[in-house]
């Protein structure tokens, strides 16, 4: 058993299948979960920092800071429910999001990261909400799935008309023939365009 399999068994949730049923690489799953957890914690801290803008009568920065703290808390709630064991509903929310496709999580993180940046553009909101946004981008990439092999892409590009060894057959299928130049006349030699007597 490899080291990554041992770590995977330790990180496994209760009731989770031992064999993953998707084709997302293991490093991308851990990158999304790790960035979501660390980014959420940093967003909460920086949200508190941005909310101190109320001392300078910046109401929009107060609202942005509170929003960023809530977005960071939601990110931690979904990605690392072990950090919020004192709340009894956390595991239900985390299990609900685990059953959904990856693009749900990606869209959620991208949507909740934008209002803080729009309300109070600064280094604190840009970095804190930017980490949540990056987590959403990683989950969006995970939802795209595994890239196809070269043979599959070539087969799709040619419409499945490839022969063995990736060579196109001599006779093209009817759906691939072009009817643009059906009436084209053959090119013939007509002589030189200038008078040869001069």
Key features of this structure:
mainly alpha; 198 residues; 7 helices; elongated; calcium channel; single chain
Please explain how this structure is put together.
By secondary structure, this protein is mainly alpha-helical. Helices cover 57% and strands 0% of the residues. It has seven helices and no strands. The chain has helices at residues 3-10, 26-51, 59-79, 90-99, 102-119, 123-144, 150-157. α3 (59-79) runs antiparallel to α5. The longest helix is centred in the N-terminal third of the chain and has 26 residues, at 26-51. The N and C termini lie far apart (91 Å).
Short description:
The protein is mostly helical. The chain is built from seven helices and no strands.
Q: Tally the helices.
A: 7
Q: Whole-number average pLDDT?
A: 80
Category from helices, strands and their pairing? mainly alpha
**Overall geometry:** elongated
Strand content: under 5%
- Biggest beta-sheet profile: none
Quaternary state of the chains: single chain
Q: Which stretches are low in confidence, meaning pLDDT under 50 for 5 or more residues running? A: none
| Helix and strand run | HHHHHHH
Beta strand count? 0
Cα-to-Cα separation, first versus last residue: 91 Å
What is the helix fraction of residues, given as a range? 55-70%
Radius of gyration: 29 Å
Membrane topology: Multi-pass membrane protein
GO cellular component, one term: presynaptic membrane
Subcellular location: Cytoplasmic vesicle, Secretory vesicle, Synaptic vesicle membrane; Endosome; Presynaptic cell membrane
Subunit structure: Homomultimer. Associates with the dally/ magu complex.
